[in-house]
Design goal:
With 123 residues, this protein is α+β, with helices and mostly antiparallel strands. It has one domain. The chain has 3 helices and 8 strands; from the N terminus they run E-H-E-E-E-E-H-E-H-E-E. The protein has an 8-stranded antiparallel β-sheet. The longest helix is centred in the middle third of the chain and has 12 residues. It starts with 5 loop residues before the first strand and ends with a strand. 25% of the residues are buried. The model has no long low-confidence stretch (mean pLDDT 90).
Length: 123
């Protein structure tokens, strides 16, 4: 089942590198528009939000559509790591507000050593 949106966290990735990757993976991107602390653009009809340093050194990338080339966050994380050669983190699946808080700390890291589950307290 496709996720309704994609959310990944990238370590040490530049906004320009991410923009170039999105253009190659999805299609033409509009120029980034700053909205407070976030930046927004549109990649081939898909609304994109970039939040620099959302969690420490980690930048958040949100693709607000189910019409991405990736069915879920993990598939996108693998594609982003392959293209950008930086560590990527994503949730292991959709998280619901009703779930236990410890479930919110479960993340998957995709990096040089492959894929592994980690605990990441993001608050």
């Amino acid at each position: 089942m496709r996720q309704p949106d994609i959310e990944i966290y990238l370590k040490d990735a530049s906004q320009q590198a991410v923009s170039d990757w999105l253009q190659q993976a999805i299609g033409a991107c509009t120029p980034w528009q700053r909205k407070g602390q976030t930046f927004k653009c549109n990649a081939n009809g898909i609304p994109v939000t970039w939040l620099p340093r959302a969690v420490g050194k980690w930048h958040c990338l949100l693709l607000e559509s189910a019409a991405t080339p990736w069915p879920d966050d993990l598939a996108c994380a693998h594609a982003a790591h392959q293209a950008l050669a930086v560590e990527i983190r994503c949730a292991p699946g959709g998280w619901q507000e009703e779930e236990a808080l410890e479930e919110a700390d479960r993340w998957i890291s995709v990096g040089q050593d492959g894929e592994r589950e980690i605990r990441w307290h993001t608050d």
